[in-house]
Write a structure and sequence with these properties.
The protein is of the alpha/beta class. The protein folds into 3 domains: 165 residues, Rossmann fold (3-Layer(aba) Sandwich); 162 residues, 2-Layer Sandwich (Dihydrodipicolinate Reductase, domain 2), CATH 3.30.360.10; 82 residues, 2-Layer Sandwich (Alpha-Beta Plaits). It has 15 helices and 17 strands. β4, α5 and β5 form a beta-alpha-beta unit. 46% of the residues are buried.
């Protein structure tokens, strides 16, 4: 049978890895797909570099639209990234009846509804395993492996850069700024790391997982996003002493009031497996009503781990290339006419537990004033530590862990506590998730 013909847009880190994995494992991949898969055309602005990589084994062009318009190309792999030209190329490929494989989480999280609607209309597939958690097959697990379950919640370490920084802060006692510089020196963080350290990258990925888990449209604009830039080594040390580790988590839950969609630093009990995921590794914990909690762990980025997911998508499309579109797995796991309009909760309506740290004057009655404020807002204390002041110090840290309560009550309590004359500066608030109950 004639090999299926692929156009590769972008032969940078992931594109080069895809070319290499497909070439190295060609025989095994063909046996699995039932048909050869051949990258026939590579599009990259750096034509000379592309030619050095592919040699005479594929045509090379500097114009990506050559590939999406080529009648001999069956599948387009989009590895350019970003929101602009990538969207135009993907939509043009779909309009020309081509299937699409993409690793572009930002594009899907923000324009996925439009892209999937166009693909449904044209009867083509858009595959995106590589868009979330690199080489971890979490999209396939959510779309297919857990299809018998009502997904209750997902909690994921889905940004390796932030996880590396937090690991270095904990292991070596570094400040955030020192750990970020180390991440940049090692190539784990970009020169402009904003998307990683502010939680935007994780929110893109969480938006995709939430849509698949709960059968809702992509709603990135409603995701609550808080990064790690304000975390201090003191809070990481206090958390450790209390039996917790701080991770940047993407969390999505289905509740009776709606769906939570949030990215923020989170205290997790040290005994949980996901709390022990260190460095640049990713992990996703999924709770289903039938299967319970399942954990998916592995490399969340890198040339060949991400290429592994890209090639897996190529194999899936090759297998289903001639199948009736009605018999394919829907893009978001649920049939398009069955997507729900379940609301996304505002962060103020989320219910969870909290770590609160405040710097106070060391005098009698201070603790009573603080606990009275919490009690008035129906916030109960689960545990509390008061640090002894050092010699000559007049102020001391108080750390409290609360039971579950509504976020808007915690916000009000923090305002009232900060207004006390005996409290210095702002109250530090970090959310806490047990990830083992319900």
């Amino acid at each position: 049978m004639k090999p299926i013909s692929v156009g590769l847009l972008g032969i940078g880190t992931v594109g080069g890895g895809t070319w290499e994995v497909l070439a190295r494992n060609q025989q095994e991949i063909t046996r699995r797909a039932g048909r050869g898969i051949e990258i026939a055309l590579v599009a990259d602005k750096d034509v000379e570099k592309a030619k050095r990589i592919v040699g005479a084994k594929a045509r090379v062009t500097g114009d990506a639209f050559d590939a999406v318009r080529d009648p001999d190309i069956d599948i387009i792999i989009e590895l350019i990234g970003g929101y602009g030209i990538a969207k135009d190329l993907v939509l043009a490929a779909i309009e020309n009846g081509k299937h699409v494989v993409t690793a572009n989480k930002a594009l899907l999280a923000t324009r996925g509804n439009e892209i999937f609607e166009a693909a449904q209309r044209k009867g083509v597939m858009v595959a995106f395993e590589a868009a979330v958690a690199g080489g971890i097959p979490i999209i396939k697990a959510l779309r297919e492996g857990l299809t018998a379950n009502r997904i209750e919640w997902i909690a994921g370490i889905i940004n390796g850069t932030s996880n590396f920084i937090l690991s270095e802060m904990r292991d070596k006692g570094l400040s955030f700024e020192e750990a970020l510089k180390q991440a940049q020196a090692l190539g784990y963080a970009e020169a402009d790391p904003t998307f990683d350290i502010e939680g935007t990258d994780a929110a893109h990925k969480l938006t995709i997982m939430s849509a698949i888990a709960f059968g809702i449209p992509m709603q990135f604009s409603k995701a609550y996003t808080e990064g790690i830039t304000k975390l201090t080594r003191e809070d990481i040390r206090y958390a450790e002493q209390l039996g917790y580790r701080i991770k940047l988590l993407g969390i999505t839950k289905k509740t009776s009031a709606g769906i939570e969609l949030r990215v923020h630093p989170t205290l997790i009990p040290t005994r949980r497996l996901i709390a022990n995921v260190e460095g640049v590794m990713n992990a996703v914990l999924v709770k289903g009503d039938a299967v319970g909690a399942t954990l998916y762990y592995g490399a969340g980025a890198g040339a060949e781990p991400t290429a592994s997911a890209v090639v897996a998508d190529l194999v899936d499309i090759t297998r289903l290339h001639t199948a009736d579109p009605e018999h394919r797995v829907p893009h978001l796991a649920f049939r398009p006419d069955q997507l729900a309009a379940t609301p996304i909760l505002s962060m103020e309506d989320v219910i969870t537990s909290y770590y609160l740290r405040m710097r106070v004057v060391d005098r009698p009655g201070v603790l009573a004033d603080i606990t009275r404020i919490l009690a008035d807002l129906s916030i109960s204390i689960d545990a509390m530590v008061q640090r002894e002041p050092g010699e000559g110090e007049e102020q001391v840290d108080i750390i409290m862990l609360t039971h579950e309560t509504r976020e808007k009550n915690v916000n009000a309590a923090m305002r009232n506590i900060e207004a006390l004359s005996v409290v210095s500066g702002k109250v530090t608030r970090i959310r806490l998730e047990e990830l083992g109950r319900n």
